Amino acid sequence: HYFKQTNLRMDPGVVFVAPTEETAHDEGIEIPLDDDSTCNLKVLQSQFANAVGLRFRAPDTGRMRALRMDDCGKIYPPPQGWDNLTFIVVVDKKRTRDEDSSEKIENEVLKPPTYHNKKASNDKIGDLIILGLSYKATENDVRDYFKSFGEVKSCEIKKDYGGNSRGFGFVSFVSDEVAKQVLTDTYHTISGRKCEVRIPKRTEPERKLFVGRLPRGTDEKDLSDYFSTYGALADVYIPKPHRGFAFITFERGDDAEIVLKQKHFLKDAPINVTLPDPPAKKQKFGEPEYGERGMKPFGGYRQESSSYYPPFATAGMVPSPATNTIHPQPLRM
C-alpha cells in the first residue's frame, strides 16, 4: 500500500513538506514559497540541513516523482500545483553519513596523551580534531591552511585500511596561543569544504588504582608518602587485617595514568600497581557456576554431566531420575 495523499487545506504561498512519509503527520512543516510560486532550496535547507530537493507520491501511479530544480536552487511545482500534496525531502545521504560518522568519532574514547614526565600540565590544549574534512583533502592541504595561523607542530588525516581518508584528522600547534586563535572560529573552509575544529572529547582516566604485593608492615602513611610524589591523593585504603594489598585514589586521572606506566618499589620490594578489577557479576538461579579452574561440581552443572542438579542437593546426594527424590551416593574422587 503506497502513501495516500490527504486533502490538505494549504494557505496560499506555502508548501507542506515532511522528512518521510511515515512522519508527515508529526514532523511535517509548511515552507513559504517565493513570489513566482517556486520553493527556494536555501529556505528548505534552513529546516532540513542536508536537503537537495523535493519529491512526492504521484496520485495516478503511486510512485515517487521528483520535482525539477534549476541551477539557482529554485524548485518548480508539479503540473497539478502545490495544493493537496505532501512533499518529501530528498537528502544528501553521503553528507548525512559523514556527519553521523563525525559524531560517532567524537563520541569514541580517544586515547589519552602520552606523558613523559610528572609535571605534565593539564592546561595544554594539545591536538585539535578536524571534523567533516573533504575526502580529497591531503595532509599538505590541511597543513598549508593552518600555517596561516602559526607554526604547525603535527598534522594527520585518519585513513581506513585501504588508505582512503575517513573524513577527519588532527592538528597541533607549537604555541597554545595559535591553537586558541584557531578555536575562536568553530568552522574553517579546507579544500572547498566547511570543517569543524574543536578540542576532542576525552573520557576521564580511572583515578582509583589497586596496589598489590605490599611488604609486611606497610601502612597508609607509607603509601601516601610514596604515591603523593606523582600527584595529590584523594584516598588511601588498606583492608584490615593486612592482606598484602591496598587501594589508592588520585584527585586527577592523569596522575593515575602516569603511575600505571611505571614500575614501583616500596621498602626496596617491587609492588604491583594495576587498575582495580570490576565487581564480579552475580550468578542467576539455574546458571552454571564457573571458577578459575572450570565448572564447580555442585550448585550448578556437574563436570561429568550436562544434567542439572537442584541447588538443595548437597555433597553425596543426587536425585533419582524416575522419582526426583534424593538418595545418597558416594562421591567419586
List strands and helices in order, with pairings.
Elements: E1 14-18, H1 24-27, E2 29-32, E3 39-40, H2 41-47, E4 51-57, E5 64-66, E6 74-75, E7 87-91, H3 93-107, E8 128-131, H4 139-146, E9 152-159, E10 165-173, H5 176-183, E11 187-190, E12 193-198, E13 208-212, H6 220-227, E14 233-237, E15 245-250, H7 253-260, E16 264-266, E17 269-274, E18 290-291, E19 294-295, E20 317-319, E21 326-328
Parallel strand pairs: 1-7
Antiparallel strand pairs: 1-2, 3-6, 4-5, 4-7, 8-10, 8-12, 9-10, 11-12, 13-15, 13-17, 14-15, 16-17, 18-19, 20-21
Write a structural description.
The chain has helices at residues 24-27, 41-47, 93-107, 139-146, 176-183, 220-227, 253-260, and strands at residues 14-18, 29-32, 39-40, 51-57, 64-66, 74-75, 87-91, 128-131, 152-159, 165-173, 187-190, 193-198, 208-212, 233-237, 245-250, 264-266, 269-274, 290-291, 294-295, 317-319, 326-328. The chain is an alpha+beta fold and 333 residues long. The N and C termini lie far apart (69 Å). It is 17% helix and 28% strand. The model is unreliable at 1-9, 108-122 and 281-315 (pLDDT under 50). A hairpin with a 6-residue loop joins strand 4 (51-57) and strand 5 (64-66).
Alpha plus pi helix count = 7
So what's the overall shape? Answer: elongated
Instruction: Tell me about the largest β-sheet.
Output: 5 strands, mixed
The N- to C-terminal Cα distance equals 69 Å
Helical/strand content category: alpha+beta
Q: Helicity range of the residues?
A: 10-25%
Rg, rounded, reads: 33 Å
**β-sheet strand percentage:** 25-35%
The residue-averaged pLDDT reads 76
Give the helices and strands as they follow along the chain.
EHEEHEEEEHEHEEHEEEHEEHEEEEEE
Give the strand order of the largest sheet, numbering strands 1, 2, ... along the chain: 2-1-7-4-5
Which ranges are low-confidence, i.e. pLDDT below 50, for 5 or more consecutive residues?
A: 1-9, 108-122, 281-315
